[in-house]
Design goal:
2 domains, alpha+beta, four-stranded antiparallel beta sheet, elongated, Aspartate Aminotransferase, domain 1, two-stranded antiparallel sheet, 15% strand, 186 residues, 6 helices
């Protein structure tokens, strides 16, 4: 896999500390340690595109890192850019609408997420009056392998499902059918 360092390095120089942290990890995947930097550490020669480490940057490293996470992040970002953000977003929104349509007939299920407008996205949060959200979460995850996020903040007592480019309508159907089955047996 090739990564265009000129664009990444320029982003590092211009980024705030939060952005710099994940970009730095992306560039240092072959090193050992968890890197901490107190000021910009990258120098980019605009003429040649060469990236160098600033001599006066304070760096701290410890531990052993795996290259899998930053390589995966780079590949995921590249794939999303190739597909196009608008297409990724449209796919996620279509899956949310599909999933919500499958949830609608299940007694006791309430969808909390906005389905239209500027706050609508590729995630849907729902809860049920039939069983506690943490019990439904555990059954979906441990017994059936579905990954959701329990949302206990603000006493929502709900589950959040995130849809993305790698999900299919069939997976949404399976999740809704499994949740319906679990709730019927409660």
């Amino acid at each position: 896999m090739q990564l265009e360092l000129r664009n990444v390095a320029t982003r590092i120089v211009q980024a705030d500390e939060y952005e710099r942290a994940w970009l730095r990890n992306l560039l240092t995947f072959r090193t050992v340690g968890a890197t901490g930097v107190e000021r910009p550490m990258c120098l980019l020669d605009e003429a040649t595109g060469e990236l160098a480490i600033a001599n006066d940057a304070l760096r701290y490293e410890y531990g052993t890192r795996t290259p899998a996470a930053p390589l995966g992040l780079a590949a995921a970002a590249e794939l999303q850019e190739r597909i196009g953000r608008d297409r990724v977003f449209a796919h996620g929104r279509a899956l949310v609408k599909h999933f919500v349509a499958r949830l609608a007939p299940i007694p006791g299920v309430e969808v909390l997420s906005p389905l239209d407008g500027p706050l609508a996205g590729s995630m849907v949060t729902f809860r049920t009056s039939i069983m506690p959200h943490d019990v439904l979460f555990k059954r979906l995850f441990y017994s059936h392998g579905f990954r959701c996020r329990p949302v206990s903040e603000q006493k929502l007592n709900a589950l959040r499902v995130s849809m993305h480019v790698f999900n299919t309508p069939a997976e949404c159907d399976a999740l809704a059918e499994t949740a319906a089955d679990i709730l019927r047996r409660a």
